[in-house]
Polar growth protein
Amino acid sequence: MSNEPITLESQQEELRQLQEEQMKLSFLLAQVQALPMPRSVSVAQSVATATTRQTDAQSVVSSDSSTPNPDWTVDMVAEWVRQKGASEDIVKSFIEQEVDGSVLISLSGEDLKNELGVMSFGLRRKLTLAIDKIRTAANF
């Protein structure tokens, strides 16, 4: 803290600086308020959605035949990809790109690499072979 005496000029300068800061903050607040807000989801809806996703994914793990088909949801495909050894980043990519069963069976090695970020040759080959096997078994 300064030992200088408080003068009218110093108080006026401080007031001017505070007013400038207030204008900047008001501008920023207006920008934030203009942003689109996500729709509200109730806690009950969130729990129901999470439970459904968990059930879908668990059905992949617990089913006798964990062979994907066109009716599989995005979450079921994500769990299948996880079981094939994919990292969580790759699993997240499948979810973000909305890869469900009907999309999964149409994927090529190039799609896996270029669109979904499966850069590991081994994992890409493993997934490609599994998808080819599904196509053959289902006559796609």
In short: The domain at 65-138 is CATH 1.10.150.50 (DNA polymerase; domain 1). The two ends are 78 Å apart (CA to CA). Residues 61-65 have pLDDT under 50 and may be disordered.
